[in-house]
From TrEMBL:
<feature type="domain" description="Fibronectin type-III">
    <location>
        <begin position="585"/>
        <end position="678"/>
    </location>
</feature>
<dbReference type="InterPro" id="IPR003598">
    <property type="entry name" value="Ig_sub2"/>
</dbReference>
<feature type="transmembrane region" description="Helical">
    <location>
        <begin position="21"/>
        <end position="50"/>
    </location>
</feature>
<dbReference type="GO" id="GO:0016020">
    <property type="term" value="C:membrane"/>
</dbReference>
<feature type="domain" description="Ig-like">
    <location>
        <begin position="188"/>
        <end position="279"/>
    </location>
</feature>
<keyword id="KW-0472">Membrane</keyword>
<dbReference type="InterPro" id="IPR007110">
    <property type="entry name" value="Ig-like_dom"/>
</dbReference>
<dbReference type="InterPro" id="IPR003961">
    <property type="entry name" value="FN3_dom"/>
</dbReference>
<dbReference type="Pfam" id="PF00041">
    <property type="entry name" value="fn3"/>
</dbReference>
<feature type="domain" description="Ig-like">
    <location>
        <begin position="284"/>
        <end position="376"/>
    </location>
</feature>
<keyword id="KW-0677">Repeat</keyword>
<protein>
    <submittedName>
        <fullName>Uncharacterized protein</fullName>
    </submittedName>
</protein>
<dbReference type="InterPro" id="IPR013098">
    <property type="entry name" value="Ig_I-set"/>
</dbReference>
<dbReference type="GO" id="GO:0030154">
    <property type="term" value="P:cell differentiation"/>
</dbReference>
<keyword id="KW-1133">Transmembrane helix</keyword>
<feature type="transmembrane region" description="Helical">
    <location>
        <begin position="699"/>
        <end position="721"/>
    </location>
</feature>
<dbReference type="InterPro" id="IPR036179">
    <property type="entry name" value="Ig-like_dom_sf"/>
</dbReference>
Length: 784
């Protein structure tokens, strides 16, 4: 096929733009022929990835009658047609390779020829050494032998002759170049010898050892030791042998001082060596840089400053710019070391204000250096401040506070202590740990209606600090969560029932108990309970008397406690049956008069009963409306009784029962009386709710035991004295009895009587003939 196109022919050596009419003849399959129509790029030395077809093409050029034969490789995957020219198409020069003889010695001569074996003349020649144009000298000459050859002659080789020589031949079509290496064996020669060096410590310096020679010389450094021998120097953190042979010192110090020897050899001729002395002038240097030291408050703190340098070397201390001297709590000591001085500053029994910046200064004739040590006095944190209660519920509350001074040590945690504020009860301390990142806590699992004492403590790595001032927290109340305990029901007659019980366990009050509801109804009746309100008192024991009941009837009785929120669960139902016998009507009781410490009780005999029906009376009384009842027996002939030894300004409850041979009457109405005067001061109670230490068991028991022991000793001593006296008196009585004494002894016929009863009987100390604390039927005391 024939096609006239402009195209480039390219190989690895040159690029030529053809502008001639070409005829291309290719023997290819028909389906591939279309791929080569158009501009053809002929490239040489292309990488072959995948060869699908190989065929030949012939290119004819009429202008110069040249014929080019090429091999075409087709790559289906890239749709790229590339060619590799197998015959030269231009007259670019081609140089025949050349070489120098093997290693030469200094003083020998050598030459090489640069011959162009292909290309169109004329040619021009240029010689290079190590990339630089080579010029003729006394020992180097360049000659053109003919149109195709250039000759390089070195008449006397030396160390400077070593290098890479290149010949470049060029014509109008292009150029070619070839290179050869010339090696001349040269013994080591000094370029720069090592010299004695004196320098300041801390600098970066080097000892020179620059040489030349071929092959490249090897440099070895040695240092003379104390016994006169030499030690090879190797690279380490303090020094390094550089590529040019010099020995580099990094931050040189006094220990690097000495004599160093550089030895150079390369196997040609004798090795060369040179020694140099290195002197190091040591200005002051402190081994440790700025640092922080911690010490606990009240303990000793020691600051150490290790100074190095040439003597004489002096040190001093200062705090915040003010010089320090040895005093009572501050001690300064120095001691010599192998390299300088070790200075110590000791502070005994540190205080908080001992913290600060301490400066250690070291000075000699070469300079002065300072080093700062920050002393931090650490201690437990101070007590948290601004402790306050947030929201309060019946079983939880929030507490917050402000961080205190941390004692120069980060706070690691807070500890919240809290316990119930119950008078007379031991503290059951509870703890809640709070992370240092928090300054508030939610206290849960609290008891309703309960007052707690609470305090907060901060802790760091040194220890726990002081606790905050205790403060009170009271939770909201809930209704009692448990019924009264130990409920008993006893029929006291055909129309009355006595009910006694104990308060629910303290932890189930859920607040302050205001009282109790005592309910009763006929057993198995559908009617609701009829409740009676009984106010709560100080005692945990309580009682109530149900009256106006029906004779011989079974009743169900329950008791439940209540507070300001509501009432708690009822106690178990108890059954009681009133008596089926008619009860005696009780006397009508009334209070006739009162004083500061006494009250006169009088009663009237029931009009519908015989005068002698009652055998005796029983008077019951108690202070207030709670607690146990006190009872006093009164003879039937008396219709009044005086209660004595009462407390002034105090309320008392009293009632009366009458006894007959058939039983006991119903109780009289319960009366409340108030003695005259002011009430006595209450017992000492800790304002904070805590029992005073002198009322606590751990104080009372040892004191009481000591008193008992003392009393026992006194009693025993008194008994022994009395026994001795009695023994003496008995001996004397025995003598008089035998003399003339007689005695009247009681006999079986002795009579017993009781003196006349008084009209007023004292409750505090009644005569044994008039009032009894023993059963009425005991006989009277015999008459002497």
């Amino acid at each position: 096929m024939e096609r006239v196109r402009h195209f480039d022919a390219i190989n690895g050596l040159n690029r030529q733009l053809f502008k001639h009419r070409l005829f291309i003849l290719c023997i290819v399959p028909t389906f591939i022929a279309k791929l080569i129509w158009g501009t053809i790029f002929i490239t040489g030395m292309l990488p072959i990835i995948l060869k699908i077809y190989t065929f030949y093409c012939f290119i004819f050029c009429k202008e110069n009658s040249s014929v080019l034969k090429m091999t075409l490789n087709l790559f289906i995957t890239l749709l790229l047609l590339s060619t590799k020219i197998s015959a030269s198409d231009v007259g670019v020069p081609k140089i025949s390779p050349f070489h120098f003889p093997g290693e030469l010695d200094v003083g020998m001569r050598t030459s090489v020829l640069c011959a162009v074996i292909y290309g169109d003349p004329p040619f021009s020649f240029v010689w290079y050494k190590d990339g630089q144009i080579l010029s003729e000298t006394r020992s180097v000459s360049i000659k053109i032998i003919d149109d195709f050859t250039s000759n390089l002659v070195i008449s006397k080789v030396d160390a400077e002759s070593n290098g890479n020589y290149t010949c470049k031949a060029s014509n109008s079509k292009g150029f070619d170049e070839k290179s050869a290496l010339l090696s001349v064996k040269v013994s080591p020669q000094w370029v720069q010898e090592p010299k004695d060096l004196s320098t300041m410590g801390g600098q970066t310096v080097s000892l020179d050892c620059l040489t030349r020679g071929y092959p490249k010389p090897t440099v070895v450094w040695r240092k003379k030791n104390e016994d006169g021998g030499e030690v090879m120097v190797t690279d380490n953190s303090r020094w390094k042998i550089m590529e040019n042979g010099s020995l580099l010192f990094k931050r040189i110090d006094k220990g690097d001082e000495g004599v160093f020897t550089c030895e150079v050899s390369n196997g040609v001729g004798e090795a060369i060596r040179k020694s140099a002395r290195l002197d190091v002038k040591a200005p002051p240097r402190i081994s440790s840089a700025y640092r922080i030291k911690s010490a606990r408050k009240a303990e000793s703190a020691t600051l150490v400053c290790e100074a190095e340098g040439d003597q004489p070397l002096m040190t001093s201390w200062a705090k915040n710019g003010i010089g320090l001297q040895t005093t009572g709590r501050v001690q300064i000591n120095e001691e010599l070391s192998a390299t300088g001085i070790i200075a110590q500053l000791t502070i005994l029994s540190t205080h908080r204000n001992d913290g600060g910046s301490y400066t250690c200064s070291a000075k000699n004739r070469f300079g002065e250096v300072n080093n700062t040590i920050v002393l931090r006095i650490v201690e437990p944190p101070e007590r948290p401040v601004s402790v306050k209660v947030g929201e309060v519920w019946s079983r939880a509350a929030t507490v917050s506070w402000s961080p205190p001074f941390d004692g120069n040590s980060p706070i690691t945690q807070y500890i919240v202590h809290y316990w119930k504020d119950i008078e007379g009860a031991s503290h059951r301390l509870q703890e809640r740990n709070v992370p240092a990142t928090q300054t508030s806590v939610l206290l849960s699992d609290l008891q309703p209606g309960t007052t707690y004492l609470l305090r907060v403590v901060a802790e760091n790595d040194v220890g726990r600090g002081e606790s905050s001032e205790p403060f009170k927290l009271r939770t909201e109340e809930e209704a009692p969560s448990a019924p009264p305990t130990d409920v008993t029901v006893i029929a006291t007659g055909p129309t009355s029932v006595s009910v006694t019980w104990k308060a629910p366990p303290r932890e189930h009050w859920n607040g302050r108990l205001l009282g109790y509801y005592v309910g009763h109804k006929r057993h198995q009746s559908m009617e609701p309970y009829a409740f009676h309100t009984v106010p709560a008192g100080r005692s945990t024991h309580a009682d109530y008397r149900l009256t106006r009941l029906q004779k011989a009837t079974r009743y169900s009785v329950v008791v439940k406690a209540f507070n300001s929120v509501g009432s708690g669960p009822e106690s178990h139902e108890l059954l009681v049956e009133t008596s089926d016998k008619d009860s005696l009507k009780p006397p009508h009781l009334y209070v006739s008069e009162t004083s500061d410490t006494a009250a006169l009780l009088e009663w009237e005999h029931p009009r519908d009963l015989p005068e002698n029906v009652f055998t005796h009376y029983m008077v019951y009384y108690r202070p207030g409306s709670e607690g146990s009842w006190h009872s006093v027996h009164v003879p039937s002939k008396d219709k009044r009784f005086k209660l004595t030894s009462l407390e002034s300004g105090t309320k008392y409850q009293v009632y009366l029962t009458a006894y007959s041979e058939s039983g006991v009457s119903d109780p009289s109405d319960t009366l409340t009386l108030l003695t005259e005067g002011k009430a006595m001061a209450p017992s000492i109670v800790s304002v904070s709710g805590d029992t005073p230490y002198f009322l606590k068991l751990h104080f009372i028991i040892p004191v009481a035991a000591s008193i008992v022991i003392i009393v026992i000793v006194i009693v025993v001593a008194w008994v022994w004295v009395k026994k001795a006296q009695f023994r003496d008196e008995r001996e004397a009585a025995r003598v008089s009895l035998y003399a003339e004494a007689y005695y009247t002894l009681p006999h079986k016929g002795a009579t017993y009587f009781a003196p006349p009863a008084q009209q007023i009987v004292a409750a505090g100390g009644p005569n044994q003939d008039d009032a009894y604390d023993v059963p009425w039927d005991l006989p009277a005391r015999p008459k002497m």
